Amino acid sequence: MDENAETLTEQRDRLNSRVKELILKSKDISAHIGGMHEVSDPMRKQEKKMDKIAAALQGNLKKLKNEKKSLAKELKALSLSLESFGMGKSVDFRKTIEEMKKLDWMVQTEVMSAKREDALSRKVIELEKKVKGYKQYAKIKDGMDLLQEKIADIAYAAEMHGDLITDALDRKYKFQGNIFKNMRKLKKDHIKLKKTNDAINKTKKEADAAHGKLMILLKSRKAEKTVYIKQKKDEIRKAKVQEDKDIEKSHDSLFEQLKKKGKISLG
Q1: What CATH number does residue 198 fall under?
Q2: pLDDT for the residue numbered 30
Q3: Which of 176, 194, 201, 249 has the most CB atoms within 10 Å of its CB?
Q4: Is residue 215 part of a domain?
Q5: Average pLDDT, the chain
Q6: Into how many domains does the chain fold?
Q7: Nearest Cα to Cα of residue 58 among 163, 161, 170
Q8: Does any domain span residue 143?
Q9: Does 13 have pLDDT greater than 70?
Q10: Ranked by mean pLDDT, which of 29-38, 112-121, 135-144 comes out on top?
Q11: Number of C-alpha atoms within 13 angstroms, CB side, residue 259?
């Protein structure tokens, strides 16, 4: 093998070795990318889960706020209704009932003048109206107390929802942060992978080109050798033919000489 063919062979083998190295590097990068996806994919699922939880809680919180607003309107209406009774905060229902029963008992059991009986009866009727009003007042007041309890419960639930929403969103943003970090790393790895694969393709082409040149050179050398061998064979064949002619000519010359000397008889 001449120097040029040896150079091309070394170049081709060196490029093929480089291709193998680059392929191993590409596999390592791909494996690393796969590993990062195995980490990122569960985090994406968790991020979406936290987002759904936060959205559901926000929907519930909105309902709670609307319910609280509706109950507040009811409470205000009851409060205005309560004010219409014109009663103070410290109304003694029991004392009024006791007084009404006492007067009614007096009317039923005691002997008194018609005028006094009529006055007491009117008083009893007035107290009955008051008691009836007190009962209505108490009913409204109980309703207001119940509404206030409901509003307080809703406010507490809303506060709890707010805390849960904050927690879910904090966890979501934490997952997002980790995902973004991985995405940046993945982007760098994908760039490395592309560069490596591009280098593989380029080096393969260079190796193929070197191999192609080597094959052309070897084919050319083979053709030249074939021509050379053919030429040598032709030269040998021609030399043999000439040699045979020379021998034959030499034999003929010797025969003529012997014939002239009478050493050879033809009869």
Answers
A1: 1.10.287.2610
A2: 92
A3: 176
A4: yes
A5: 84
A6: 1
A7: 161
A8: yes
A9: yes
A10: 29-38
A11: 8
For every residue of the chain, which 3-state class applies, written as one string? Answer: CCHHHHHHHHHHHHHHHHHHHHHHHHHHHHHHHHHHHHHHHHHHHHHHHHHHHHHHHHHHHHHHHHHHHHHHHHHHHHHHHHHCCCCCCCCCHHHHHHHHHHHHHHHHHCCCCHHHHHHHHHHHHHHHHHHHHHHHHHHHHHHHHHHHHHHHHHHHHHHHHHHHHHHHHHHHHHHHHHHHHHHHHHHHHHHHHHHHHHHHHHHHHHHHHHHHHHHHHHHHHHHHHHHHHHHHHHHHHHHHHHHHHHHHHHHHHHHHHHHHCCCCCCC
CA atoms within 13 A on the CB side of 89: 0
Amino acid letter for position 241: V
The identity of residue 116, as a single letter, is: R
Model confidence, pTM? 0.54
CB-based burial of residue 211 (10 Å sphere; 0-12 exposed, 13-18 middle, 19+ buried)?
middle
In angstroms, the CA 2 to CA 16 distance is 21
Q: Tell me if 78 sits within 8 A of 140, measured CB to CB.
A: yes
Tokens of 190: 């994908």
| Residues 3 and 135 sit within 8 Å (Cβ to Cβ) | no
| Residue 108 belongs to a domain | yes
| pLDDT tens-place string over residues 195-251 | 999 999 999 999 999 888 888 888 887 877 887 788 888 888 888 878 777 777 777
pLDDT in tens, 148-158: 999 999 999 99
Residue 155 domain-assigned (yes or no): yes
Burial class (CB in 10 A: 0-12, 13-18, 19+), 22: buried
- How far is the C-alpha of 120 from the C-alpha of 109, rounded, in Å? 12
Q: Are 137 and 82 in contact (CB under 8 A)?
A: yes
